[in-house]
Amino acid sequence: MSTTAVAPLTIEDAELLVATARRAAEDAGVTVSVTVLDAGGHLLAFRRDDRAVLISGETSTRKAYTALQLNAPTADLVDAVQPGGLFHTLPTALDRPLLFIAGGVPVHRDGRLIGAIGVGGGAPEQDHGFATAAVAALA
Fold first, then answer.
1. Where on the tree of life does the source sit, at the highest rank (predicted)?
2. Residues 69-113: pLDDT tens digits?
């Protein structure tokens, strides 16, 4: 059996993700915080603008963590945590709380999960758009 190595998410990749999300947000007139995690959940890059709401940094980190742990955009998971939803009890079952608000997007390379980006500070739909634009820049 052979395995194919997949290049990990690098610091350069993380910096590109942050810069792209930040530019997209600035173009929309929004101030955001951006967090990028590698596949192991380790912080690779983080940016919080002094004009952003203080909690936006924690929000972006938890969005990235949620997208990474569940390997899905957080925007796709909102209904799953509602009463009767697939993940209704999951947020209390993990050591680190998850955040099911749009703005967290997993990052894949060659079909494998290599990290995640989280954006916080704008409306959830805006944050999702900024994160998605950043991931598209890696392609």
1. Bacteria
2. 889 999 988 777 777 766 655 555 556 667 778 999 999 999 999
Only one residue has tokens 């990290």, namely: 115
Please report, as a single letter, which amino acid is at residue 32.
V
Q: What is the CA radius of gyration of the chain?
A: 14
Q: What are phi and psi of 36, to 5 degrees?
A: -125, 130
Q: Give the model's pLDDT for residue 97.
A: 67
Q: Is 131 left (phi over 0), alpha (psi -120 to 50) or beta?
A: alpha
- Contacting residues for 5 by C-beta, under 8 A, at least 6 apart: none
In order of 88, 89, 90, 99, 138, the CA distances from 93 in angstroms are: 10, 7, 5, 13, 33
Tokens, residue 33 = 């915080």
Cα–Cα distance measured from residue 6 to residue 66, given in angstroms and rounded to the nearest whole number: 22
